[in-house]
Design goal:
Chain lengths: 101, 195
């Protein structure tokens, strides 16, 4: 069974929805952030697969942009997590009340 | 051809392991496996520069950042690890998402392929599609604007992290006294050792 673009679409979809499930199900903010990284990578895989299909560089360059955004998002997200959860000795996103008015 | 199936199994299994692991460190290990398999898949898609970047940036920088934060947060007294215990309350939207994913999966695989992948030049040669030279030439000539935007995003991220870390540092002086005593004791112990 030869591998076509559809298989890459399917793999990317499964990976993206695993990431969505992780964000929905888990309460640990670190694992939620890792699930967001999974979704970033699913999008990247699709971009690179289509760049290979049409032999266009633009997809790879956009994937490069996505990797950079993911790195910035991880740095800022982890800084927010540390700032929020370091004084409190628990890690549960349902218990955060500091943004309530 | 068969590399895709092996890598797909590794990617999906490690992604499931990432969101189902009971401890965040296990999630990081699973994510490392996932990113490694993805990097290999990128190389098979003749995106060799992005495969290397995937290993350097994701496996090297982002995951180490996760490990540092886990070590920083789990030094508290309360149990840090919480399992996927939101599942009983959320099974309906989760089930809908899984069902939608499966329907889309069956649809994409069963429909006819858009276009079979055409072969490009050998991997590692300059001036073929996806090589480092090709990518760099495109990045610095035609696609210069995304490159500048990347620089701006990274600067904003650095400023944001410094701002957030500065807020964290402001809480420190309350406990500065005992750390000073600790340091004095440590230096005394060191002096004793060298004498």
């Amino acid at each position: 069974m030869p591998v076509s673009i559809n298989h890459y679409i399917a793999l990317s979809t499964v990976m993206f929805f695993i990431g969505v499930l992780g964000v929905i199900v888990r309460r640990n903010p670190l694992v939620m952030l890792m699930s967001i990284e999974l979704m970033f990578n699913a999008a990247n895989l699709l971009l690179i697969a289509f760049a290979r299909l049409w032999l266009q560089n633009v997809g790879q360059i956009f994937a490069f942009l996505v990797i950079t955004v993911a790195a910035a998002e991880a740095a800022i997200g982890l800084a927010i997590i540390v700032t929020t959860f370091r004084p409190a000795r628990y890690v549960d996103v349902d218990d955060v009340r500091s943004l309530h008015g | 051809m068969s590399a895709f199936w092996v890598l797909a199994v590794i990617i999906i299994a490690s992604a499931v392991w990432t969101i189902s692991a009971s401890k965040p460190v296990y999630s990081v290990v699973a994510l490392l496996l996932n990113f490694g398999a993805l990097a290999v898949l990128y190389v098979t898609l003749s995106a060799e520069f992005l495969g290397v970047i995937q290993i350097i940036v994701y496996s090297g920088a982002i995951l180490i950042l996760f490990v540092f934060v886990i070590a920083l947060l789990s030094s508290g007294v309360a149990p840090f690890a919480t399992g996927p215990d939101r599942l009983p309350r959320i099974w309906l939207p989760g089930g809908i998402f899984v069902l939608a994913s499966l329907i889309f999966l069956v649809y994409t695989v069963s429909s006819a392929p858009l276009n079979p992948a055409r072969p490009s030049g050998p991997v590692g040669t300059a001036n073929v599609f996806g090589s480092v030279g090709d990518f760099g030439k495109a990045l610095f000539t035609v696609q210069l604007l995304p490159f500048e935007v990347v620089a701006l995003i990274l600067m904003v991220a650095v400023i944001g992290v410094i701002t957030l870390g500065g807020e964290l540092m402001r809480d420190l002086p309350a406990s500065r006294q005992e750390t000073k005593a600790d340091r004095a004791m440590r230096e005394a112990i060191l002096r004793e050792g060298t004498d």
